[in-house]
Amino acid sequence: MTTQHDQDVADLRAFNRTYTRRLGLLDASYDGSPFTLSEARVLYELATRTDPVAAGIVRALGLDPAQVSRTIKRFTERGLVTSRESPAHGRHLLLSLTDEGRAAFSTLETNTKASIGQLIDGLHPLRRARLLAAARAINAVFEGDAPPAARLRGLEPGDLGMVTARQGFLYAGEYGWGRDHEALIAEIVARFHQDFDPAKDDAWIAEADGRMVGSIFLVRGEAPGTAKLRLLYVEPDARGMGVGQMLIEACVARARALGYRRLDLWTVTTLTAARKLYQRAGFQVVEETPCRRFGQDLVDQIWSLDLTA
Length: 309
Prior knowledge:
Blueprint: H1 4-22, H2 37-48, H3 54-61, H4 65-77, E1 81-85, E2 93-97, H5 99-121, H6 125-143, E3 151-153, H7 159-175, H8 179-195, E4 202-208, E5 211-220, E6 226-234, H9 243-257, E7 262-268, H10 272-280, E8 284-293, E9 296-306
Parallel strand pairs: 6-7
Antiparallel strand pairs: 1-2, 3-4, 4-5, 5-6, 7-9, 8-9
GO molecular function: DNA-binding transcription factor activity; N-acetyltransferase activity
Keywords: Transferase
Protein name: MarR family transcriptional regulator
């Protein structure tokens, strides 16, 4: 049986095959130049760095030191590169392109830009936008050294719609809840906006790696001194990062700061992971009722947290 990991590997390999074929990266020469792809990369580093050394190029490209050394030797023999001893370290040679080398690089850059330009100009604007967004995302993933960390921020334009859409997609996919649930989320979000009072309400968006990965809302309740925790969710690929706990802690702290004495929330027993977070935060079940919601037989639960304890 094919696992998700196997499918992920297959998807990335398929991308590699498509990318190398469309850009001609397997050709003996790169963009019609007399250079292979690895030679073109070394030439680029030589042209865009100030007094580079071979070791720096090796680190930048992740190539074998012997391969870089042979490439620089060939460039030197062809009159493209010259070297001089480093005044700071006599064992290191500072490399630079000759006039001929700079001319070769200029030609290569012109041809490469034209080739890439021709590729993207031939795409429909929708596909071009998708391609460039994916390219930027891939670049950001591989350039980031530290693991992604979540942070909380306030609401920004577009967030209310995103919260509605993401919860609609996720709960439909994970639990089979349909448009009735999405309509309920949209109603809660719209009411939050219409009745918003900064002295009584608040909301947080969790972000990681530049995208929304969760949300939580604090709204005033019907009874005096009571608030409600609403619209908690965490994206599947951000679970295990502590996002849910971070959101709940922010909501509870803000409820206390606003002077609320009790914080209530509604959930259903199906949402096991969320219920564990509520329990860990000190909430307790105060009411439980079987119901029919979103086309399914569910069990409603009201949880409550005493903020004066």
